[in-house]
Amino acid sequence: MSEGIEVAKKLPVTDDIREAMATIRRGTDSFLIEEEFEQKLARSKATGKPLRCKLGLDPTAPDIHIGHTVVLNKLRQLQDLGHQVIFLVGDFTAAIGDPSGRNVTRPPLSREQITANAETYLAQAGHVLDLEKTEVRYNSEWSNALGSVGLIQLASRYTLARLLEREDFAKRYAEELPIAMHELLYPLMQGYDSVALEADLELGGSDQRFNLLVGRELQRQYGQEPQCILTMPLLVGLDGQVKMSKSKHNYIGITDEPNDMFGKVMSISDTLMWDWYDLLSLRPNDEIAALKKECAEGRNPRDAKVMLAKEIVTRFHSAAAADGAEAEFVNRFRQGAMPSEIPEVTVPAGEEGIQIARMLKEAGLVSSTSDGNRMIEQGGVRIQGESVSDKMLRFKAGEELIVQVGKRKWAKIHLA
Amino acid sequence: MSEGIEVAKKLPVTDDIREAMATIRRGTDSFLIEEEFEQKLARSKATGKPLRCKLGLDPTAPDIHIGHTVVLNKLRQLQDLGHQVIFLVGDFTAAIGDPSGRNVTRPPLSREQITANAETYLAQAGHVLDLEKTEVRYNSEWSNALGSVGLIQLASRYTLARLLEREDFAKRYAEELPIAMHELLYPLMQGYDSVALEADLELGGSDQRFNLLVGRELQRQYGQEPQCILTMPLLVGLDGQVKMSKSKHNYIGITDEPNDMFGKVMSISDTLMWDWYDLLSLRPNDEIAALKKECAEGRNPRDAKVMLAKEIVTRFHSAAAADGAEAEFVNRFRQGAMPSEIPEVTVPAGEEGIQIARMLKEAGLVSSTSDGNRMIEQGGVRIQGESVSDKMLRFKAGEELIVQVGKRKWAKIHLA
Question: What is the side-by-side strand order in the sheet with A400-405?
Answer without folding.
Answer: A344-347, A409-415, A400-405, A381-383, A386-387
